[in-house]
Structures are given as C-alpha cells and as structure tokens.
Amino acid sequence: MNYNLSNMIKEKNNTTLTFEDFKTEVLNDYKIAVTSRECSLLGRREVLTGKAKFGIFGDGKEVPQIAMAKFFKNGDFRSGYYRDQTFMMAIGELTIANFFAGLYGNTDIEQEPMSAGRQMGGHFVTHSLNEDGSWKNLSKQKNSSSDISPTAAQMPRLLGLAQASKVYREINNIPNQRNFSISGNEIAWGTIGNASTSEGVFFETINAAGVLQVPMLTSIWDDEYGISVHAKYQTTKENISEILSGFQRDKNTNGIEILTVKGWDYSDLITTYEKASKICREEHVPVLVHVTQLTQPQGHSSSGSHERYKSAERLNWEKEFDCIRQMRLWMIAINIASAEELAEIDAVIKQEVLEGKKLAWNTFINPIIAEKNELTSLLEKIAISCKNKEQILRLSNSLKAIKDPLKKEILVTARKSLRLMVNEIARTELSQWIQKYTKKNQTCFSNHLYSESTNNVFSVKEVVPTYSVDAKKDTDGRMIIRDNFDALFAKHPEVLIFGEDSGNIGDVNQGLEGMQEKYGETRVSDAGIREATIIGQGIGLALRGLRPIAEIQYLDYLLYAIQILSDDLASLHYRTVGKQKAPLIIRTRGHRLEGIWHSGSPMGMIINAIRGINVLVPRDMTKAAGFYNSLLECDEPALVVECLNGYRLKEKMPLNYGEFKTPIGIVETIKEGTDITLVSYGSTLRLVEQAAKELLETGINCEVIDIQSLIPFDINHDIAKSVQKTNRLLVIDEDVPGGASAYILQKVIEEQNAYQFLDSKPQTLSAQEHRPAYGTDGDYFSKPSIEDIFEKVYNIISESNPTKYPKLY
Ligand SMILES: Cc1ncc(C[n+]2csc(CCOP(=O)(O)OP(=O)(O)O)c2C)c(N)n1
Ligand SMILES: [Mg+2]
User: Fold this and answer.
1) Mean pLDDT along residues 693-708
2) What tens digit of pLDDT does each residue of 387-428 get?
3) How confident is the model at residue 303 (pLDDT cuts 50, 70, 90)?
4) What is the CB neighbour count within 10 angstroms for residue 755?
5) What is the pLDDT of residues 713-744, one digit of tens each?
6) What is the pLDDT of residues 118-177, one digit of tens each?
7) Which burial class, exposed, middle or buried, applies to 728 when counting CB atoms under 10 A from its CB (0-12, 13-18, 19+)?
8) How far from chain centre, in Å, is Cα 385?
9) Is the CB of 59 under 6 A from ligand 1?
10) What's the predicted TM-score (pTM) here?
11) pLDDT-based confidence at 1, cuts 50/70/90?
12) What's the CA angle centered on 363, arms 360 and 367, to 5 degrees?
C-alpha cells in the first residue's frame, strides 16, 4: 500500500487499491491515535485525582508510532522507551484496560501484562516465555523487550536484538532456530527521545551498529525538549541527524542510513518507514529515522507542567502542529472523512476509553476492597473478647471508611491490631491472617528475581572432572579453558563469544586460541572497545534464543558496563515477572595482577549492583570451565570472574571437557580443620591455602572453604556447619574493607545463624581501602598477604590460648 497522496490517487485509478480500503485503513489508524490520546488525557486526570501515583504518557507522538507499527512484522523486536503506548496499541499488545491497569499498579499479570504493577506505566513488554519459563515461538508474534527508565539504556540491548538477525542469517544449525528467526529477516526497532541521545551509550550503539551492519532501525522522537531542557543544551547544532551525518553510508563505505521526517506528516511518515524498513530488513543496514517537530501536549509527565518552561509561542505552535490535529486536517482535505464524522468518532472513542478505564479500576480495586472487608469482619469478630476492644475497633472503623484502600493500609491496620491483642487467644486467628496476606503479597512484589523454572542454576548437578591415572599438574590453566570452550562450541551451535581481542588472537590470555579459525567469525569475534554495548549485544542476543558469552577484558573495566548490567540485565527477570529471560554469560578476569586497573576485585560493588545475576568466582580454570558447562545447561545470566593470575598456573588436564560441571551455590571445603574456619574465594584462596599450611606447622589447624559462588551463596549453609565445628570464623578477600567480606559475614552470621557457634569475634581480612599499587611490593602492601593471613589467624587463636600462642607484636 502506498500512502503518499499522489501515489494513492494513482493507485486508486489503477484500482490496485480502492479508495474505500485506503479510507478504512486510515480511519483505523486515526482511531488508534485518538484512543491513545484519550488514554493520556484521562491518565493524567487519574493521577491528579489520586487514583494513580504517577503517569508518563505518549501524547504528541501518536502518528509516527502508527506509521512505525505498519512495518513491524512478526519476529521483529522493539527496544524503546516510555512514549510508545500508541505503538503498543497499534501492534495489538496494549488494550485500554491494560493501559490503566499499569497506571494503577495492578499486580495481576493478566490485567497488567507489562510488569504486574512492578514498573510505572509506560514501560512496555511482550511475553517471550510460557508459564514454565520455556520459550514461546517468537517468530510468530510481535515482540518488545522490556523497557527501563534510564535514558538511552534501551540502546545497548537494541544492538544485540538486531545482531541476532545477522547471526541467524549466517548460522543454520541452531536447535529450534525457526522459533526465533526466519532467515534473519527481523528488524530490531529502537525508539529514543531527542534529549536522551546526549547519553554516551547512544553514540556507542550507533557506532557499533555501523561497524556490525545489523538490521537496527532507530527512531528518534524529537520534541526539542528533555523535560525542561531545550535542544540547545542537549545537542550540538540542535540537530541530531545533522551531527550524525558522518555515519551516513555511501556506495563505498559501511555506515548507517539516515532519514528525516516531520512527525505530524502522516503520509510522509508512512513512506519513510516503508523505505527505512525495506533497507534495514533486506540489506541489514542500520537505519536512523529522525522524527522532528513532535509535541508534548501535557508536558513531560504528571509531575510538573510545561507552561513553566515553554514560551507562549512554542505552546501555540505545539497546539497547531499536534500530530493528531494535522492528521485530522489531512483526512478532511483529501475527503477521507468530514469534520463532523471525525468528531463523532472522537466522541465514541472518548466513551470507550472511559469505559475501559472504569473496567480497569474495578478489576483493580474490587479484590482489595474484598480483602479490606475480610479483615474488618475478622477484627470486629475477634475484638469482642479483647481487652483493647475499643482501640481495635477504632482501627478497623478507620480502615472501613477508606473507600479505595491500599493493601498497605489493610496490612498496617492488621499489624497494629495484633499488637493490641498480644496476650489474647484471639491473636492466633489474626496472626495467621497477617502471615497469609503478607506471604501472598510479598510474592507478588518479590518473586522472579532469579529463574524459578526447572532449568534454573539449582537444577545443575555436579559432574566431577575425570583424569587419566597418571595425570599430573602440568597443563597451563589457559589450555583447560581453551579446550573446554572448544568442546562447548562443538556441542552448542547457539553459543557465541565476543569481546575485545577475543577473536583473532583468541583473547589476551589465549583462552580462545584458534577458536575463531575453527568456528568462524560469527561465533568467535573481536568487538570494539565498548563494554556497555558488548553487554548490550549479549542481552539482545540472549533475548532471541542464542547463548552469548560476552567477554569483558578485565574485571576493572566492567564498570563501563555496570549500569547496563544493573539496570537492564539484573532486573530483567524481576521486572517482567519471569516473562522474559536473557541467560547471558559474562566472562571476565580479575583479582590480583598488576597496578590499579588490572588488579581490582570490587566484588562488593558488583554483587550489590547486580542482584538478579549469578556471580561466580572460581579459584582455578578447571572450576571456571566447569561453571561455563553448568551455565549452558540452565536459563539464568551469570558473571564468571576467572583468576587473572591463573592462566599460567599448572592444573591437571581433565578428560571430560564440556561435560564436567561445577555446581552453583555450593561451597567446597578444600582443607578440613578444627580450630578456625577460613572462608575465601578466587586468587586469594591460594594464599589462604599456603597460610593454612604454615599455621599447621605451629599447631593451628584451619578449615579452608572456597565459596566459589557469591550469588547464590552457600545454599546448604555449609559454612555455618563448619563454624559449628571450629567455633571461629575469618573471611578473607581482596576487596575493600566492608566490601564482599561484609556481605559474606551477613550471610554466615545472620542468615546462617553462625553467631551462636562462635567463641571469638568473627573477623574479616581484606585489601587496603585504596586501589592496589603497582608491582610486587605494591601488591604486598595493598592486598592481603600470606603473612597477613597467618598473623590474623594467629592473633585470633592467641586470644584464647595466649600461653601456647604468645603475642607476635
Ligand atoms: C539516566 C537518566 N537520567 C535522567 C533521567 C530523568 N529523565 C527522565 S526522562 C528525561 C528526559 C528525556 O527527554 P527525551 O529523551 O527528549 O524524551 P522525551 O521525554 O522528551 O520524549 C529525563 C532527564 C532518567 N530517566 N535517566
Ligand atoms: Mg524530548
């Protein structure tokens, strides 16, 4: 169908398209746009009257989204932001009732499919997974990755979603491939606000897409503002497509295609998206559509008003160039409908939206009212026999008077009432009611941070490495990693690895030596120096059924990607209530080596930033390889930190590459002892082992435990069992004081209740607060040494037996 006016008439005369067909389609588009607008208008009122807490809407951006949706096909993916409600309505993934359910925060996923109330409205998703966590057929549905609020953070993942099409075009032996792609013909559609293009990850993504030549179609919704800040403070020349023009491809170069279109010009928008999607889908060339002259009729969000920062002239212009108004004028001008007919449509839609809103409200509030009634009836019944009857009834009556109660108000009433009946028999019934109610609702708000499927990390059973009878510790660690990757690439065609120097030279430590030659550039590749988008590639590829391993060259450089890991990957399973998964493996190497930026071990920062991602800290390369083997059997994301100083250390060569599995969440006792439990992980563990040997010579018998897995942490509480035996605990790591060691103490002392077995103060030994200094001496004075460990343990033992172990200093 051609929507350009002159072509339209030509087509009409050629009878390839009847005017009636054309008219029906345009009218349908208009109806979606008006429905969306009415939702925005009514949505804002719901916030102002207190029924909803916050609203951010897509008004002013309706018409371009209708145009974009026309070329969005099954199998395609969107990665966008909070203005895209019209698009979601146009592809049939958001109803009026869903829209309002999101605004109210309905925790029922059936009513609020975007996040079951976890995200504020305007953050969209489609469901990629069945109830049991298995994949749906994504190539038969329209897909949207799950939105997040940080501006431009949708961009890194967009790159990966697009790259997946390229991978599927080049590789044809992946199991269930057709559930994810039909010959790689899918586009990844991005949307971003004009001001958000100021973020670094926007430029990083555009550059990477130009290099990778992937089908990524990015639309910039340009309304000249980012909240109150005008384009002149955001964008050089106030024009993002102009400054990106150096990326424009030409006959002899790679690059991207850049198109510009006015956001209120319905017919030109359709022509533009038709052209853009054709280039992108067929040629796999990234396309950027700069949609200018958009408006924001109600301002940025339900907080604040744009009259405070837009001039009267701008406000008037926005009224005139409101995209729906312009579409209406165009329809009247070409006789698609009269002003009266359109006014009639508007009135009908207004009513429909009102009814949809009412339905959503009733569906949301009625179950809560029923819970309120249940509690007040219970309180009235049990209060009669209570000493504090009056006070309890007062609480109950106050709750009763709340017309639209919150769950919080119900629970507060119940918990306050409980305190008033501590010594009464009636207490039991209320206490049970509270526990049941809390459990149900806590689950609503807290489940699915990690996979709850039968393929989660706990499903992996340990498979020990096997060795030949005469095996000696004579193989470099890096060879074990390499040969294991070799086995994995052969076993899993859906596995691919990429990162800085990972391809041609086979990573900086040669753990991938020869792999590119053997498995090709699609599966083993070099990436630019751009950690955030390396992770974004991984997230997007994993969302489309591949098993990417994204390599971050050194743990210290994970910081460039920590925002995406924390905001996007770590929250993905939680914020989609288990409706999307990205089982990405992040491979990196860390702990001590040389100097400030090659010796960091900021594990406390990492584990606190990325709850939702498993964090594995193997002590050697066999353990690391075993983790990769385990992870590829399950459906969760994980960070694996290999020991930077372990690639040249000798290990025994296993026979069952690709098969042996390190269990996840299970600690390993590597030396049994009776006097104190030493808990550590990673590179530090070797020092702990040595210190334990030296301590044994003085008669102190340490039990040494390798944590192996910081998240999940010691699921069998084996550390507490050890402390029960030794009655003493020292946690050693090379993070800052109060870093990961504080996390470990909290787990062992508080969660595992090990405090009750202690005869001495539980202690930690960590690195200095500053970054590790360069060289062997820098290391010695920055990180815990064998002597530090020895003396710390000695002092703990000396406290209880000073006669045998007199003070050293
Ligand atoms: C990293 C980050 N910084 C700040 C914000 C707060 N914020 C939300 S939207 C927004 C402006 C975005 O403007 P633009 O990209 O032009 O999109 P528009 O809302 O105009 O469509 C800001 C600053 C945020 N969400 N994320
Ligand atoms: Mg803007």
Assistant:
1) 98
2) 999 999 999 999 999 999 999 999 999 999 999 999 999 999
3) confident
4) 14
5) 999 999 999 999 999 999 999 999 999 999 99
6) 999 999 999 999 999 999 999 999 999 999 999 999 999 999 999 999 999 999 999 899
7) buried
8) 51
9) no
10) 0.97
11) low
12) 150
Greatest C-alpha distance within the chain: 107
Contacts of 170 (CB under 8 A, 6+ apart): 184, 522
* DSSP run (H or E) holding 162: helix 154-170
Residue (of 725, 726, 729) closest to 750 by Cα position:
729
> What single-letter amino acid sits at 367?
P
Contacts of 236 (CB under 8 A, 6+ apart): 243
Nearest to 464 by CA among 654, 664, 615: 654
> Which residue's CA is the closest to the ligand 1 atom numbered 21?
193
Contact 47, 104 (CB under 8 A): no
Ligand 1 pocket mutation, candidates 62, 84, 151, 294, criterion most atoms within 8 A of CB: 151
The length of the chain is: 809
CA–CA distances in Å: residue 148 to residues 119, 202, 434, 786: 8, 15, 33, 45
Tell whether the torsion through CA atoms of 290, 293, 294 and 298 is positive or negative: positive
- SS3 state at 525: strand
SS3 label, residue 585: strand
Pick the closest to residue 784 from 749, 745, 735, 742 (CA basis): 735
> At residue 45, what is the residue type?
R
Signed CA dihedral, 291, 297, 301, 306: sign only: positive
Q: Scan for tokens 């509690």, then name that residue.
A: 375
- Nearest CA owner, ligand 1 atom 20: 226
If you average pLDDT over every residue of the chain, what do you get?
96
Which distant-in-sequence residues (6+ apart) come within 8 Å of 623 by Cβ? 662, 708
Residue 598 a catalytic site member: yes
Buried b (16+ CB within 10 A) or exposed e, 452-480: ebebbbbebeebebeeeeeeeeebbbbbb
Q: Judge contact between 660 and 629, C-beta under 8 A.
A: yes
CB neighbour list of residue 561: distance below 8 Å, 6 or more residues apart = 531, 532, 534, 535, 552
| C-beta 82 within 6 A of ligand 1 | no
Match 């953050």 to its residue by tokens. 123
What is the DSSP annotation of 710-737?
A: EETT-TT-HHHHHHHHH--EEEE-SS-T
